[in-house]
Each structure stands twice: as structure tokens, then as C-alpha cells.
Amino acid sequence: MWARARGLLGRSELARGEALVLPKTKQVHTVGMTFPIDVLFLDENGRVLHLVRAMRPWRLSRWVRRCRNVIELQAGAAADVKRGDRVEIKSP
User: Closest Cα partner for 31 from 64, 56, 4?
Assistant: First the structure.
């Protein structure tokens, strides 16, 4: 639980190709963060319902009703992603 609540806090950046997946999430914040992130909100089938590009520190995203998973990425990593795209989550 604490790892989820902490998220990316205390980190100075997300490495290229690195992501944080937050299951069962409908909203995120960047309070206390020091760098922007791209945020993807996915439905149960992995379709992008909403995305925020370069979400700056100290912001609160909108609440996305049908969202099942959120993926937080390095700012710019989701440049080619658009609403409706399907994203597959794979563990390393």
C-alpha cells in the first residue's frame, strides 16, 4: 500500500522505457514530484480512455470513470499514443 501511495515521489526522473503501472486507479496526482510525466488511463481491455502529456508537478488529473489501470511514463514517451489505442502491459 505504501509503495502505491508513494508512487514516483522521491525520484528525480523516470528512465527511458521505464513505467509505473497503477492498477484499479481512476485518478493520479503529481503533488511533491519534481518532473513531468505522461499518463495513460486504460479500460479493462487496455484501450486508452484518456491521456495527459507532460503532466507537470503539483497537478491533479481528472477522474476517469471506466479506467482500470494507469500507466505513468517519462514525459514524451507517449508522444505517438492516442485515445482508443490498445496498450498491452507486460512484466519484465
Answer: 56
What's the mean pLDDT in 31-41?
A: 94
pTM to 2 decimals?
A: 0.87
Percent of the chain with pLDDT over 70: 86
| Alpha-carbon gap, residue 71 to 54, rounded angstroms | 13
Closest C-alpha among 39, 40, 43 to residue 67? 43
How many angstroms from the chain centroid is the CA of residue 12?
16
Number of separate helices (H) and strands (E) present in the chain: 1, 4
CA neighbours within 13 Å on the CB side: how many for 67? 25
Q: How many beta carbons lie within 10 A of that of residue 61, not counting itself?
A: 19
Given a cut of 50, is residue 89 above it in pLDDT?
A: yes
